[in-house]
Amino acid sequence: MRYVIDIYGVLVPSLLLWIIIAYVLSAILRRLMQRFDLYRLVWHRALFDFAIFICLLGGVVYLSEHLS
Asked: For residue range 16-64, what is the model confidence (pLDDT) as tens digits?
């Protein structure tokens, strides 16, 4: 994994980009769960959303290591 990514001369930590990607994916997943009323099966919505975000972040980082 590269720790710093150069975007037009600005050095950006790669973790920041992976967090943004994971956030977008979790936002899409949250909307789908609201649309299909799946939150009624969840005990604590905020903890569940945080856990999903952490799982997505781990998956994005894992895939980024194998794709580069």
From this structure: 999 999 999 999 999 999 999 999 999 999 999 999 999 999 999 999 8
Both tokens of 35, joined, read 């649309």
∠48-51-1 over CA atoms, to 5°?
A: 160
- Structural domain count, the chain: 1
Q: What's the longest Cα–Cα distance across the chain?
A: 47
Tell me what pLDDT residue 1 has: 55
The confidence score (pLDDT) of residue 6 equals: 86
CA distances from 36 to 2, 14, 43, 60 (A): 38, 34, 16, 25
Residue type present at position 51: A
Question: Which structural domain range is residue 55 located in?
Answer: 4-67
